[in-house]
Amino acid sequence: MTTSRRSFLQATAAATAATAGLASMSMAAPRPQATRRDEAREKLDLLILGGTGFLGPHVVEAALARGHRMTLFNRGRTNTHLFPEQEKLRGDRDPRKGDGLTALEGRDWDAVVDTSGYFPRMVSASAGMLAKRVRQYVFVSSISAYADTSKPGIDETAPAATMDDETLEEFGDQFQHYGALKVLCEQAAERAMPGRTTNVRPGLIVGPRDNVPRFTYWPVRIEKGGEVLAPGDPGDPVQYIDVRDLADFIVSTIEDRTVGVFNATGPTTPTNIAEMLYGCKAVAGPTATFTWCDADFLTEQGVQGWSHVPVWVPPRGESGGMHRISVAKAVAAGLTSRSLADTVRATLDWYHAWPADTPFRWRGGVSAEREAEVLAAWHAAHG
């Protein structure tokens, strides 16, 4: 496993875990007002497993903005202040712990959204219990589900990741099992509700509430101005999806009763690292300048794509297709992308609204000192 793919899996796993963490303490950007089409839409009763981390609150907000009714099921340990007017059921995804899924018994919903499933045993338990109580199960999986990310154009028919011991409930030291576990979770949901499951495979999720070391690093760093270490070649591809676009897509699959497997990343029009960084600069920091350091030089300096310079990975070897995933199927099903400027503004608004008396755990990208060292080495080598 290459360093960049390992870093990709580690960051993806850590970011997905944030759906149950600190990331939701601040307010997200407001949802647009309901349209006449929204008013004519069938009002649904929806259940979300989780709903208090990064993606979950945005799904809840998207559903509420479209007139649907939400019930949140979680342990009640994180961000309990969110959504005080919505019904909340307490329990544990693991049926072996406490009351487990007891709170879900005897209830019916139109659909369930699972943003917090990591191990197939637990997904099998929740999907099995709800099979006769909901018409559709939406499981949030991951682009990491693919066995081979070396080739561009990966679509939903590409071979999925596997693991030798399918009973193992750990990601592994290098997160090598994370993708395969997501695949097993998808299969568990489909077995419980055949033909009624929607497996959404997001790429890099970005935007307000994202407090792990990913996209947020760039607008925050560029806003500070000065010389910025820019990774690779300006034309290197990147993919990401605004969390609000992902949430809207998830709700739309329920409204349209869309089932199947969908790659959900973006933008829907291909972009590259230069367009992303200059787009951040247009909003965040007009005084920033970029010094482009190629992939070989960064490797020599011990600077890793995705972790030290977030979002970007060198488009070669095992990571050659990581940012060239096909989203044609999801676009046909209604996936859309908002502007980069919207994402950058919302991310910075969220970042600056963080309470002054609350420690901000997010640490992304290289430190200012390390960035200066690498830039100095680049200039010394290239005049």
Notes on the structure:
33% of the residues lie in helices and 14% in strands. The chain is α/β, with parallel strands linked by helices and 383 residues long. It has a single domain (3-212, 240-268, 321-342, 354-369), classed as NAD(P)-binding Rossmann-like Domain (Rossmann fold, 3-Layer(aba) Sandwich), CATH 3.40.50. The strands form four sheets. The protein has a seven-stranded parallel sheet, sandwiched between helices. Strand 1, helix 3 and strand 2 (69-74) form a beta-alpha-beta unit. Helix 4 runs parallel beside helix 5 and helix 8 (273-284) crosses helix 11. The radius of gyration is 21 Å and the shape is globular.
Summarize the structure.
Helix content is 33%, strand content 14%. With 383 residues, the chain is α/β, with parallel strands linked by helices.
